Amino acid sequence: MITQTIVNGLLLGGLFGIASIGFSIVWGVMGVINLAHTAFITVGAYIAFSLFSTFGIDPLLSIPISIIALFILGYGIQTLIINRATQTNLLLSFVVTFGIDLIIINVVILLFTTDFFSVRPSYSGASFEIGGVVIPVVRVIVFALAFLLGLGCYLLLNRTRLGQAIMATALDRDIVRTMGVNPRRIYAIAAGLGAALAGAAGNLAAIIYPVSPFIGLKFIGAAFVVTVLGGIGSVEGCIIAGLLYGLIQALSASVFGVETQEISAFLIFILILLLRPQGLFGKRFFGEH
Amino acid sequence: MTIEIKGLTVHYGDSQVLDRIDLVLPDRGMTALIGANGAGKTTLLRTLMGLVRPTAGEIIVDGRRMTGLDAEQRPALGLAMVPEGRRLFQGLSVHENLRMGAFARRDTVQIARDFERIYDQFPALVPLRRQLAGTLSGGQQQMCAVGRALMARPRYLLVDEMSLGLSPVVTEDLARTLSRIQETDGTSILVVEQDVELALDITNFGYVMETSRIVLSGPSDTLRANPKIREAYLGL
Ligand SMILES: Nc1ncnc2c1ncn2[C@@H]1O[C@H](COP(=O)(O)OP(=O)(O)OP(=O)(O)O)[C@@H](O)[C@H]1O
Ligand SMILES: [Mg+2]
Known about the structure:
The complex is a heterodimer of chains A (about 290) and B (about 240). Helices cover about 70% and strands about 5% of the residues of chain A. Chain A has about 290 residues and is an all-alpha fold. Chain A has one domain: ABC transporter involved in vitamin B12 uptake, BtuC, CATH 1.10.3470. Chain A has a two-stranded antiparallel ribbon with strand order 1-2. In chain A, a hairpin with a 2-residue loop joins strand 1 and strand 2 (about 135). Chain B is an alpha/beta fold. In chain B, about 35% of the residues lie in helices and about 25% in strands. Chain B has eight helices and ten strands. In chain B, the strands form two sheets. A six-stranded mixed β-sheet of chain B has the order 6-7-8-3-9-10, with helices on both faces. In chain B, strands 2-1-4-5 form a four-stranded antiparallel β-sheet, covered by helices on one side. In chain B, helix 2 packs parallel to helix 4. Chain B is globular, with a radius of gyration of 17 Å. Classes of the chains: A mainly alpha (about 290), B alpha/beta (about 240). The interface between A and B is medium-sized, with 21 and 29 residues.
């Protein structure tokens, strides 16, 4: 029973992690708290749904499409709106991204109404059992893909020339220019990357949850808790904090009832922050602007 | 590489910080820029790098006007700066900082050799390769900052307040490195220095700035002998 709960929590935790990485990167690199992040998740879910329902494309195969589409959307929004509107002014970034969120969600409602849809590939009912613990195949696939995407993102930021430029820009957006880095371009790429990861998370979420204009909202709490818990801008922190978040929610739901799961997660979040304000895996010197 | 500055004027808001600056930074040499606090030396360097937009005047590098050229396009022309206060990427390692210095370059093979060269110049950095730059001592940070600028293989290197807060030994060491780089690579170097003695010692030519204007210039030896300089800057 308890093992089942732990497994459920960890498997979902992978999704919470991947749903938060983009939010964390955008916050860490440009100091923007992107309230439209969950709208990007919603768009990813509808891309999976649309391709599945119209063309019968398997929702796992639509992931690259969601990633590319959302990268373009995030890059475009950053270039056309956020780069112009804000220069790491937190309050302004709230207002602007909240507006973008409203617009996106309303477009989604116009196109798809507020009905609930489901994406059910042939394998969606399949599960296997290990030592009495039932494990749905879909959730394992979602977990594995979430982990791989997180790993890819970690390697991109830490092992590539572009990733290093993103990190350097996060640390000093003025002096990087004297090395040939264009911070506005880096911001657009970081925003595109953040949106792309949100799109992937939404696409994966569509396989597990009913698709509606509110599917992204499931992750708003997770995005904040996981980001701050993992350390703002830390990909590896997000993955681990995501697992922790899933675990806490699942345990709380099974012990105290489903309605307590968000509360418990937030309480533990506040507790950890009181003990360790930089988050569990906060990177030194990052997020000091 | 020659840098010509003509009538350069800079404002921060309403206050004028550079007032019709004219100067020529000669090719293949070390030039000093000295002056009291707040004279505008850092502003002049930042304007050369494109981080500050002038309100009037122009900067001409090897006959090419810099007007309208963004900061991020200037390293490709051979300009690099060791900024005031070092400004290392504190959360990146020493090695990653050096690599960022070479960001605008594509000659991978030569970059690899240049890493070795920097570590040869600054052996103290070798055991610190993987350490976060923000955790280094002041002297180590300055070596890293100079190394990072050199990784760009600049033709003109602008060095701002290199000696600030450093022990004389470390300062001497860094100054010797700059002289060596100047000789072996033919890199032209402009040093902005509080330590006027040192600045006039390692350079051939100097400019003196006072509240937003160039007030004096000449060969470094002549400046050192100048009674005004001796009194105002050398405390003699
Ligand atoms: N970003 C800024 N905004 C407004 N004023 C500024 C700014 N930066 C510098 N100043 C002002 O411009 C003037 C020149 O400053 P600058 O830093 O260029 O002087 P400096 O010669 O490098 O001085 P120091 O020897 O202390 O480094 C000073 O009066 C300073 O207060
Ligand atoms: Mg200065």
